[in-house]
């Protein structure tokens, strides 16, 4: 007897299970996508506790711009060194005056930045110290300037008194202007040229659109890798990179001849580029 074949209705539960499975897969994919997006956002943010793309790439806006040539950079550096040499011939008083103004201007630039309050306070303290040194040096210049001593008879009596005092045993080795001499000693040890150079490269790079006088003549400028300008502290750090260039026997400077982006050692340290301002 032939067996009867029964028509089995479709399993409705299977369809339901299939639908649920599809929805679960879509939800999982969506969660995964959102997770990746969140991870990308987390990586993009500069957290300083994980490896991020920061400092490893160049801003898209800078791609394709012409780099400054070694000739342009070398000529600009020669002009800048000549300017520093001229400034170094000035009295230390002028350096203190300009340094004081720089500290206070840098502090005022951070007035509306609440997160930099500590930096602002430090700059004001530094400016106050420089102002104190400036007043002491100004007083020392006034005392040493013979044109300010108009009464010659008093001067003669004073000189005789000093000569007499020199013959007597000294009871005190302290000079009323010993702190001025101490300040002069520090400047002499560090080198007046060092102070002028630090101020020169820091201020011009930070506050004059990345252009020192030499760079302005050659029409080139310094930029960070993200395309923004340098702050005063970043400019000072870049100037410190010149010391590293000297320590490498000038090879740190010469590497602009073979580096893909013509970065010298100070550019590597401060994450900067020197570009042709005409591009």
Amino- and carboxy-terminal Cα gap: 95 Å
**What class would the helix/strand composition place it in?**
mainly alpha
Report the mean per-residue pLDDT as an integer: 74
The biggest sheet amounts to: 2 strands, antiparallel
Computed over alpha carbons, the radius of gyration is 34 Å
* Beta-strand residue percentage: under 5%
Query: Low-confidence parts, pLDDT < 50 over ≥5 residues?
Result: 32-42, 148-154, 169-176
Q: How many distinct domains?
A: 1
The tally of beta strands, per DSSP, is 2
Q: How many H/I helical runs?
A: 11
Largest beta sheet: strand ordering:
1-2
- Helix-strand sequence: HHHHHHHHEHHHE
- Binned, the helix content reads 55-70%
Apparent shape: globular
């Amino acid at each position: 007897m032939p067996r009867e074949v029964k028509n089995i209705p479709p399993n409705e539960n299977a369809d339901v299970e299939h639908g649920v499975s599809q929805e679960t897969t879509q939800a999982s994919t969506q969660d995964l996508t959102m997770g990746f997006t969140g991870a990308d956002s987390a990586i993009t943010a500069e957290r300083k506790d994980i490896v991020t793309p920061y400092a490893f790439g160049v801003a898209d806006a800078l791609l394709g711009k012409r780099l400054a040539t070694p000739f342009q950079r070398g000529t600009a550096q020669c002009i800048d060194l000549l300017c520093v040499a001229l400034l170094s011939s000035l009295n230390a008083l002028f350096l203190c005056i300009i340094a004081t103004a720089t500290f206070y201007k840098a502090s005022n630039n951070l007035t509306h930045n609440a997160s930099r309050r500590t930096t602002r306070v430090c700059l004001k303290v530094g400016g106050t110290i420089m102002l104190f040194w400036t007043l002491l040096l100004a007083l020392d210049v006034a005392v040493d300037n013979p044109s300010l001593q108009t009464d010659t008879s008093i001067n003669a009596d004073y000189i005789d008194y000093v000569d007499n005092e020199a013959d007597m045993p000294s009871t005190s080795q302290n000079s009323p202007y010993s702190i001025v001499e101490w300040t002069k000693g520090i400047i002499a040890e560090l080198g007046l040229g060092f102070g002028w150079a630090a101020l020169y490269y820091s201020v011009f790079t930070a506050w004059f659109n990345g252009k020192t006088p030499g760079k302005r003549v050659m029409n080139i400028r310094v930029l960070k890798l993200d395309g923004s300008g340098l702050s005063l502290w970043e400019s000072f750090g870049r100037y410190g990179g010149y010391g590293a260039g000297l320590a490498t026997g000038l090879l740190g400077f010469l590497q602009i001849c073979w580096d893909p982006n013509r970065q010298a050692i100070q550019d590597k340290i401060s994450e900067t580029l020197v570009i042709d301002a005409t591009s």
